[in-house]
Amino acid sequence: MKFCSECASPVSLKIPAGDNRPRYVCDSCAAIHYQNPKMVLGTIPVWEQDGELKVLLCKRAIEPRYGYWTLPAGFMENNETTGEAALRETREEAGANVTLGKLFTLLNVARVHQVHMFYLATLQDLDFAPGEESLDVQMFSESEIPWDDLAFPTIQTTLELFFADRVKIRKGGDYGFHTQDLTRPMRSDGETK
């Protein structure tokens, strides 16, 4: 940051009085500009028919990770709840209408200053199509998931936890709520698991 968004004067990086870390502070109006993690919200859209469960995934049409598969998700906007953001991103990326369930994963990705949250979701119908940020949208059973072509560690972790909980459900359990700190970096293109 070079200039204050309040008065357009230059800013300096310093520790403000009463704080414990460097912040951008305006040299003129003394406004403190805090930088906080971004929230990424999404869903795990599922359809179950005749005992077979499938998950809807989107193939990314944007960088980073162009051409890789992801759950529908994106950055939360101001004046949205987390649930509203998850529903909006699902409509935008997959053209899908879902009924939102409970929060399933909360994943801290501190190295990129993000928090990823995924809600369980049930597709209302099979009327879906790629949005502007998706090349393709498809349904996958667990055995069909393109594990080596998933876009981000948060997607892989969420899907692994989801299918692990499915085993519990078959034994009379329920979906849990999972939170983790993810420190592993993304695989580079061409690198396998």
TrEMBL record:
<protein>
    <submittedName>
        <fullName>NUDIX domain-containing protein</fullName>
    </submittedName>
</protein>
<dbReference type="Pfam" id="PF14803">
    <property type="entry name" value="Zn_ribbon_Nudix"/>
</dbReference>
<dbReference type="InterPro" id="IPR020084">
    <property type="entry name" value="NUDIX_hydrolase_CS"/>
</dbReference>
<keyword id="KW-0378">Hydrolase</keyword>
<dbReference type="InterPro" id="IPR000086">
    <property type="entry name" value="NUDIX_hydrolase_dom"/>
</dbReference>
<dbReference type="InterPro" id="IPR029401">
    <property type="entry name" value="Nudix_N"/>
</dbReference>
<feature type="domain" description="Nudix hydrolase">
    <location>
        <begin position="22"/>
        <end position="163"/>
    </location>
</feature>
<dbReference type="InterPro" id="IPR015797">
    <property type="entry name" value="NUDIX_hydrolase-like_dom_sf"/>
</dbReference>
<dbReference type="Pfam" id="PF00293">
    <property type="entry name" value="NUDIX"/>
</dbReference>
